[in-house]
Specification:
heterotrimer, B: 148 residues, alpha+beta, three-stranded antiparallel sheet, 2 helices, C: 439 residues, seven-stranded mixed sheet, 28 strands
Chain lengths: 493, 148, 439
């Protein structure tokens, strides 16, 4: 078959485009090189919905950030995605930084950010009593928030699939060609044909672009390392706390996550390998130092995980969302750096507008016209339920009565939901991203066996076929007792 | 000279046992250390603990749901093959008495070679006189066969 | 729903507490266990060495668990498995859930916390590097290998020389894996000597003291770790790095009492133990809530867990009896808060050599003839003396010791009469080394 549209890359941007297109009567395929969606930049970032005072005035980033920020609350409500409009503070500690705060405020006004205020020390400390008392002023932006980026990506993909979209995992686009008036995308399992192609390949968007036309941009992968602390530290701050931006970075961020943990980071290191998500002793030390300067009471002994994400920064000053000029029917949303997450809902719509302007007919699906709820999603979140809701749920289905993950209070029923969702969880970490099982303080030590068992049972896998995350990340080498090599114990002499 | 770490108490004295001098022990801080040193040099013994493979027949009709609600102590994962009609699990075992250290590998080979089918009570003999050590390999927990 | 006594956790602590409370006349006892069988972590500890003190023989973990469970045979104790307690309120109402009963709330006359502990993870020590599969705590590996029947790797490096780690080094070797080294940050091992000898030395596994892991490589499955020597301040020394190719890294880097539920009940925790602050009869700062086993402090031997749990079982039984007689009388105090009227108490502080004590204080008068102080020392100490002094610096008790190590729990036993005479004040527990005394 020939698809109307093929989207390359199932990160938050590809997902937003797919979600936006699912309203229309088109055949759409979303191609992803990894074994799950949201495995690139989307899985490891600050999870912040920026208010929009950072991007340069007049940039596409500024417009889409402010618009995306405004769309986010309703979108997350529709998709049952964890989102908190907690606001953000950019805190200054001296006269130079006060000046930066005023500049950001002015820029925010021009970008159309609503409800910002510059506030003084007393008010800052009444809002955030754990901040370093040496703060002078801060930019308070109440429209900023926090969201679970991978949950948002997965939710959009699930709706896309439910409305007839197709997601092909393990389907890296190796080559792009033209045949008989349509695009031919070579993936490991064959060829995908489509009238139109949208490149949302994130870190790899420059390489994907190069398959059809000499690229006019390059992605410069920038690694960011993070600390994720126990929920015991989650109440250190209420809003997102930015240190005043230094040259080339927003500085370190101290923020809660939607799960109630404290997250601190990121570093910014330009690296060569787009896949190098290692953390380093130096990077982690830098984060600790910077964070303690802002919030001295953070207890880093409560650390539960460190991780890195790679930003898909372009060598250009703005997002590159456009029709690729020298070829027909090829579009891209590339170079989506920060504030890409906050902008994502708006980027999806913007790409749809690009297609419309290019003459693509976009009739709305009858299903969507008949029932707007088809564009929404609901999932069971046991740990957010009231006692009476829990009681009713377990009565209906006993599998919600067995707690699998102690740290995050996730039930077997929720894990089964994830395994049988429109975008099935097939790995330990895929279950984690959909249910939060294994995300907590024991890092899967207790729930790992149970989740492995459910994956094996439901998907008919041998234990050796169960993987943690990416292809090759196997958990088991075989049955106990099969590898005995007759090792001799040491003789006493 | 045989050098050993004493395990009689947490102190961990470095013992030297002289096989040319009637297995005389030096370096010990107490008489129990001397006794340990002599025994460990002359005839070191260990209790071997491990698990043996145990197979349960699986209801052929319930292949789709491999283990609907099997009672404890059945494992959660267990190394099973979805295409085979049984469930594989591990039964913990030990040698009934300490066996010569030099025979540990032989015992482990016997442990790995055996496959059993339940039920078992704690203390039931799995292999009599395992690897000719004089010790029996015995179950260290009850294992019930799930109801069909 | 109501039960006179609710015990959270059916590991060795919960089972022993239940049996002892029953022996002391409590009949309406409910034990809530999150796993699908009683016994707790003992079920996966298939090695032997348990029970020498309590049962006078060397048992394996499953055998010890079976003995502990047998003590409940023909009693009225109810054990609910597969049951997760979600919260405990300060006035002793629990919410819990299981597939059979669904969501339920139950009030208790008394509660014994016996939830055990969990293992510290890679995050707790912030090892930099990649995040591949093949990195797991020793206890998780133990569960996979011994119960689930799945081998977790073929070439193994062990970080930390805690007992579970040492046991797993031997276990993995016996199952055909190659254990390259046991890497220990400290200049001494926190494990029992017996385990160093029988789990490492027996199989020629090198113990690398004063070393740590400074990098982890592997995009998907673990490929290698970098081992570095550390200086006296435990900082890696540049230039001492060696890379070890391996597919598995087992972590045995400490245990943390699991007190998330205790916090929901408002129980005050001691940052040094990670467990509740308790008086000599295991009573926490919340009336009617007791704690025992690894949720209170991490024990070295399960036998000591059982002894402590029995103490908790007796204390809870005594509390329930006192409640009953209080309630029978005319001047009844609500919720038994009358018990918390400041009884005379002895607080115990420590010197720099002692990490913590359990209990943290004594309530006077003491109920039994003797009272114990359990504690751990910070480093290996030789030719030393345990000294307990009163507020005026007078020596209450001194015990000479040849050798003390952080890996072992220490105990001194005191006469109740002597303590009762002291009245309300602060005692100091110190360990004095020989040289220091000679000064």
């Amino acid at each position: 078959m020939i698809y109307d549209v093929a989207i390359i890359g199932a990160g938050i941007i590809g997902a937003s485009v797919a979600y936006s297109l699912s309203r229309y009567d088109l055949s759409v395929v979303l191609l992803e090189k990894e074994c799950d969606v949201a495995l690139g930049t989307t899985r490891a970032n600050s999870g912040i919905v920026h208010a929009g005072y950072d991007p340069p005035v007049g940039s596409l980033m500024a417009a889409l950030n402010v618009e995306g920020n405004a769309l986010m609350p309703d979108l997350c409500r529709d998709l049952d995605v964890l989102f908190e409009p907690c606001g953000s503070l950019v805190v200054a500690h001296n006269a130079d930084e006060d000046k930066v705060v005023r500049e950001l405020f002015a820029r925010g006004l021009q970008n159309g950010v609503p409800d910002m205020e510059i506030i003084g020390r007393e008010r800052i400390l009444s809002m955030e009593p754990n901040l370093n008392a040496a703060v002078t002023t801060a930019l308070w932006a109440p429209t900023a928030g926090i969201v679970n980026p991978w949950d948002l990506c997965i939710a959009m993909c699930e709706v896309f699939v439910r409305l007839g979209g197709r997601i092909l995992l393990n389907s890296e686009v190796l080559a792009t060609g033209r045949d008989d008036g349509h695009w031919c995308l070579t993936i490991p399992s064959g060829t995908i044909r489509a009238q139109r192609v949208i490149n949302t390949a994130g870190l790899y968007s420059d390489e994907v672009h190069a398959q059809v036309s000499p690229p006019d941009f390059t992605i410069l992968p920038a690694r960011g390392q993070y600390y994720l602390l126990d929920k015991s530290q989650g109440n250190q701050v209420r809003s997102v706390i930015f240190s005043c931006p230094a040259k080339d970075t927003k500085g370190v961020v101290v923020t809660r996550t939607v799960h109630g943990n404290l997250m601190i980071g990121p570093t910014k290191e330009y690296i060569h390998d787009k896949d190098d998500t290692a953390t380093t002793a130096d990077g982690l030390r830098e984060i600790r130092k910077k964070a303690l300067k802002m919030v001295g009471s953070i207890n880093f002994r409560e650390n539960i995980a460190n991780f890195s994400g790679i930003r898909a920064n372009p060598d250009k000053d703005d997002f590159l969302i456009r029709k690729v000029s020298d070829v027909d029917h090829y579009y891209e949303a590339a170079g989506i750096k920060s504030p890409g997450l906050a902008s994502a809902p708006a980027i999806g719509r913007y790409v749809v507008d690009l297609l419309r302007e290019d003459g693509v007919p976009l009739p709305e699906k009858q299903r969507v016209l008949d029932d707007p709820l088809t564009m929404t999603r609901r999932i069971v979140r046991f740990n957010r339920m009231r006692p009476d809701e829990r009681e009713a749920l377990v009565k209906k289905d006993a599998r919600y009565g067995r707690i699998v993950c102690r740290c995050e209070t996730v039930t077997e029923g929720e894990v089964l939901d994830a395994i049988h969702s429109p975008l099935p969880a097939q790995t330990i970490d895929a279950v984690k991203r959909r249910t939060a099982a294994g995300l907590g303080r024991c890092q899967g030590g207790f729930c790992g066996p149970r989740i492995a068992a459910l994956l094996a049972e439901e998907l008919h896998l041998r234990p050796t076929e169960i993987i943690k995350d990416r292809t090759g990340s196997y958990l088991f080498t075989g049955p106990t007792g099969a590898e005995h090599s007759g090792k001799e114990p040491r003789d006493a002499r | 000279m045989i050098e050993l770490t004493c395990i009689v108490c947490p102190k961990g004295c470095r013992l030297r046992v002289d096989e040319n001098d009637g297995y005389k022990v030096t370096g010990n801080a107490c008489p129990r250390g001397a006794a340990y040193g002599r025994e460990e040099a002359l005839d070191p013994k260990r209790v071997v603990t491990s698990t043996v493979r145990i197979l349960f027949e699986r209801d052929a009709e319930s292949v789709d749901s491999v283990r609907p609600d099997l009672p404890a102590p059945l494992p959660l994962v267990s190394y099973f093959d979805p295409d085979l009609p049984h469930i594989e699990a591990r039964l913990p075992v030990k040698t009934s008495v300490p066996i010569p250290k030099a025979k540990i590998a032989d015992v482990m080979n016997a442990v790995h070679a055996v496959t059993v089918r339940g039920p078992y009570d704690i203390g039931d003999v799995i292999i009599k006189n395992v690897a000719e050590t004089g010790a029996d390999l015995i179950a260290t927990r009850d294992l019930r066969v799930p109801d069909a | 729903m109501h039960a006179d006594l609710i015990i959270i956790g059916a590991g060795p602590a919960g089972l022993a507490a239940a049996a002892e409370a029953h022996r002391h006349g409590i009949r309406d006892i409910l034990v809530l266990e999150r796993d699908n069988e009683p016994g707790g972590i003992l079920n996966q500890c298939i090695h032997n060495g348990f029970g020498l003190h309590i049962y006078k023989e060397e048992l394996t973990g499953p055998e010890y668990a079976a003995r502990a469970f047998d003590e409940l045979r023909d009693t009225s104790v109810v054990v609910k498995q597969d049951t997760m307690v979600l919260s405990v309120s300060p006035d002793r109402v629990l919410s819990a859930i299981n597939p059979a009963d669904g969501y339920f709330e139950v009030s208790a006359g008394a509660i014994i916390l016996a939830m055990g502990c969990r293992e510290r993870t890679r995050g707790a020590i912030a090892i930099p590097g990649d995040r591949p599969s093949g990195i797991l705590t020793a206890g998780a590996a133990q569960r996979y290998v011994n119960i689930e029947g799945c081998m977790v790797g073929k070439r193994v490096v062990l970080l930390g020389s805690g007992d579970i780690g040492l046991i797993m080094a031997r276990r993995m070797t016996l199952e055909g894996a190659e254990v390259l080294a046991c890497v220990e940050l400290m200049p001494f091992s926190g494990g029992l000597t017996r385990n160093i000898v029988q789990c490492l030395q027996d199989y020629n596994i090198p113990l690398m003291l004063s070393h740590t892991i400074t990098d982890i490589r592997g995009k998907n499955r673990l490929q290698s770790v970098t081992v570095s020597k550390v200086d006296d301040d435990l900082r890696p020394i540049p230039g001492t790095e060696t890379e070890m190719e391996c597919d598995t890294l087992l972590l045995s880097v400490g245990l943390i009492p699991e007190n998330e539920l205790s916090k929901t009940a408002g129980v005050e925790l001691d940052p040094r133990t990670g467990g509740p602050r308790v008086t000599d009869d295991t009573r926490t700062t919340v009336p009617g809530i007791f704690a025992c086993g690894n949720v209170l402090h991490v024990h070295d031997l399960v036998d000591n867990v059982t002894l402590e749990a029995r103490k908790a079982g007796r204390a809870a039984a005594r509390f329930l009896r006192e409640e009953k007689s209080d309630n029978a009388g005319p001047a009844r105090l609500p919720n038994g808060h009358g018990r918390t009227h400041p009884a005379p108490s002895l607080t115990i502080q420590t010197d720099h050599n002692v990490i913590y004590t359990v209990p943290q204080s004594f309530r006077l008068p003491l109920p039994d003839k003797t009272a114990d102080i359990y504690f751990r020392v910070r480093s290996i100490l030789r030719e030393c003396e345990i000294v307990l002094t009163d507020a005026a610096g007078r020596i209450v008790r001194r015990v000479p010791k040849d050798y003390m190590t952080p890996g072992e729990m220490e105990k001194i036993t005191l006469s109740a009469d002597a303590l009762n005479e002291l009245g309300t004040q602060t005692l100091t527990l110190s360990v004095v080394e020989q040289e220091a005394r000679d000064d």
